[in-house]
Amino acid sequence: MLQYTGKLEVVDVYNDHSVHRLLIFVIKFVAMSFSYIPATTDSIAQALEAKDPSESISILYQILENPSSSSEALRIKEQAISNLSDLLRQEKRAEELRSLLTQLRPFFSVIPKAKTAKIVRGIIDAVAKIPGTSDLQISLCKEMVQWTRTEKRTFLRQRVEARLASLLMENKEYSEALALLSDLVKEVRRLDDKLLLVDIDLLESKLHFSLRNLPKAKASLTAARTAANAIYVPPAQQGTIDLQSGILHAEEKDYKTAYSYFYEAFEAFNALEDPRAIFSLKYMLLCKIMVNQADDVAGIISSKAGLQYVGPELDAMKAVADAYSKRSLKLFETALRDYKAQLEEDPIVHRHLSSLYDTLLEQNLCRLIEPFSTVEIDHVAQLIELPVDHVEKKLSQMILDKKFAGTLDQGAGCLVIFEDPKTDAIFPATLETISNIGKVVDSLYIRSAKIMA
């Protein structure tokens, strides 16, 4: 075997290790030459036709390794990234999606910034669809914020920061989310990016609502509506605004207005087949129950729109409506127990149902104690089918709130109900006389002041 030494000499290399090194170099070169495949539509088709998802993922990675930067190759690579993200999401390989964003950074430098933003947001959305990845999403967004700051990609950074604030809020890291939004909203207002401003104001409203600061939540929602009026708002975003409006009106006990907002949100989400449609419908039913129209719930569920969403969420609201119609605390508690995930774990429904439960309990207690002047607390607890300590606590609260006149004799374990005191007719007349005398004295004082002047 012969080797070219660079000195125009031919030497025998059988007796040294040059042959071995040369063979290794050739093998590596050949391997590198075939570590990618052409970025063509045929390659994409080959990846999609592969029987095994792992094989498809491998082919798509090889397409991305192609060094070609022609316009056609870039277009094929964008398609490959989209397909790869979907496959990794389906396979629940969240860490690989995170690594993919890092691997694609050289590719981002050769494509337009708008396309970069679309790809980055698409991959983050893919990670979000994998259950149990909230911490990974937060760390991923923080990494991307750092990268966008370094690359001076303001447009993308603002949107990733908005997404990060949303994730922090879901993770109940409210102070960090609020600090991030406060800086972001000032920056976006200066740039006058209305569409992003609507998102941020809406997110800020949700954040203040989670912190139980209703005035600021309403102010942020008003700001979101003002910004939305100046631009075209996508139906999904308009539905989100209506949903938040309904939640805030329901919090103020204005259930009729809340119902109309929830209905608008339901119409928008239903047309888009958005999963939030069922929650809008659920809150519509809640409003019907809260305004003492529980009989309408069954009709709404059996309507054409309601039948599409029949399931545990609507079954839970129907059970609550039945319990409320029958004024049965036992049925109410059964519904809360049987549909715990749909009622108690939904903070909005749980808050209003707690108020409804208290109202129902007070109505039942007042009805039960009405015939008595003195009654044992044990007897009341048996009639209402609730624990004695729970009934005793509620009765003491009702006495303090002056729902009825009475006292608890804890030594005897009895409730003593007083007769309603009759108002004496002389008291109002006396108060009116004193008021008139005061007016006369004031008038005389003014006249005397004028005479003395």
Please tell me about this protein's structure.
With 453 residues, the chain is mainly alpha-helical. Among the domains are: 1-32, no CATH class; 35-131; 373-452, Arc Repressor Mutant, subunit A. It is 73% helix and 4% strand. It contains 24 helices and five strands. The protein has helices spanning 18-33, 41-49, 53-64, 71-90, 94-103, 105-108, 113-128, 134-151, 154-170, 174-191, 194-210, 214-229, 235-251, 255-272, 277-290, 296-301, 304-307, 312-325, 329-338, 340-343, 347-369, 377-384, 388-400, 426-452; strands at residues 2-4, 10-12, 374-376, 406-409, 414-417. A three-stranded antiparallel β-sheet has the order 3-5-4. Strands 1-2 form a two-stranded antiparallel ribbon. A hairpin with a 4-residue loop joins strand 4 and strand 5. The longest helix is centred in the C-terminal third of the chain and has 27 residues, at 426-452. Mean pLDDT is 84; it is low at 1-17 and 22-34.
Question: How are the SSEs ordered, and which strands pair?
Answer:
Elements: E1 2-4, E2 10-12, H1 18-33, H2 41-49, H3 53-64, H4 71-90, H5 94-103, H6 105-108, H7 113-128, H8 134-151, H9 154-170, H10 174-191, H11 194-210, H12 214-229, H13 235-251, H14 255-272, H15 277-290, H16 296-301, H17 304-307, H18 312-325, H19 329-338, H20 340-343, H21 347-369, E3 374-376, H22 377-384, H23 388-400, E4 406-409, E5 414-417, H24 426-452
Antiparallel strand pairs: 1-2, 3-5, 4-5
Helix pairs in contact: 2-3, 3-4, 4-7, 5-7, 8-9, 9-10, 9-11, 10-11, 11-12, 11-13, 12-13, 13-14, 14-15, 15-18, 18-19, 22-23
